[in-house]
Amino acid sequence: MPRHVVKQLSLWVTARRQRWYLRVFGARITEPLLWSLNRHSITGAFGAGIAIAFIPLPVHTIVAVLVALYWRVNLPVALASTWVVNPFTMVPFYYGAYRLGAMLLRSAPRHFKFQLSWRWLEHGLGPYWKPFLLGCLISAIVFGLLGRWILELVWRSAVRRRYRMRHRRTPAATTII
Question: Of 104, 115, 118, 171, most Cβ neighbours within 10 A?
Fold first, then answer.
């Protein structure tokens, strides 16, 4: 199923390569490595997407596309994995990043009341931005690398398991009397 979906998506992009919204990327958008389903491409895109998710600005999609084009990792996986931090998980992730930054800077975490207004962003966020950004940076690096390595281990164990299952079936099928 995933291979079929990725192949259809790749064909869709190739057919629309000359449209204005894809012309910006040139011929690189149709590069096979951006659409391949190999281990290195998938795990790299997953780790990069998780790291990008910790950027506290709404630029995840643009950054994920640029990173996928530069590092030549799977574009759909990089885009999808940025949604680890979504509107439902944003508060715990960013609060955890703030607490981590406060701990690393050895400052006492302060309690604050969030208000969705420009005035609060200008005046209420002032004392919190250094620990928050440091925590986001450290969290992005740690969770990005951790996500890539864990997916790499899961992928390798699945390949080993399939190999063993195939190897167990082969001798029994060849012994015909």
Answer: 104
